[in-house]
Amino acid sequence: MAYWVGKKYWGNGYATEAAKAVLEFAFYEKNYNKVFARCFLSNTASGRVIEKSGIKKEGILRQHVKKDNEFIDLVYYGILKNEVSKIKENSNSNV
């Protein structure tokens, strides 16, 4: 899963809403078993979007990406189809 939102649209919940829709499509239309997402460790806003979507942190890939001549850690997240069912039961979200 990946997303990019223009600065003037930050904070409106668009990325979280889209992420939940992607999960619903992946699991119920495409019948995927797992969806993963990742973001830079320093990008806490993106991490919040991922976690609000119900995707769980699986680990940190240390110095996994080189950006601007610097090695950066990535946070790796994942969610399984059976976990989405639990999320739907426990909330009023769109997932």
Automatic annotation (TrEMBL):
InterPro entries listed in its UniProt record: Acyl_CoA_acyltransferase (IPR016181), GNAT_dom (IPR000182), N-acetyltransferase (IPR051531)
Pfam families membership: Acetyltransf_3
Record keyword Transferase present: yes
Stored PROSITE patterns: GNAT (PS51186)
Keyword list, A-Z: Acyltransferase, Transferase
Domain N-acetyltransferase: 1-83
GO MF annotations, alphabetized: acyltransferase activity, transferring groups other than amino-acyl groups
Keyword Iron among record annotations: no
Family: Belongs to the acetyltransferase family. RimJ subfamily.
Protein name (record): Acetyltransferase
Organism whose genome encodes this protein: Halalkalibacter akibai (strain ATCC 43226 / DSM 21942 / CIP 109018 / JCM 9157 / 1139)
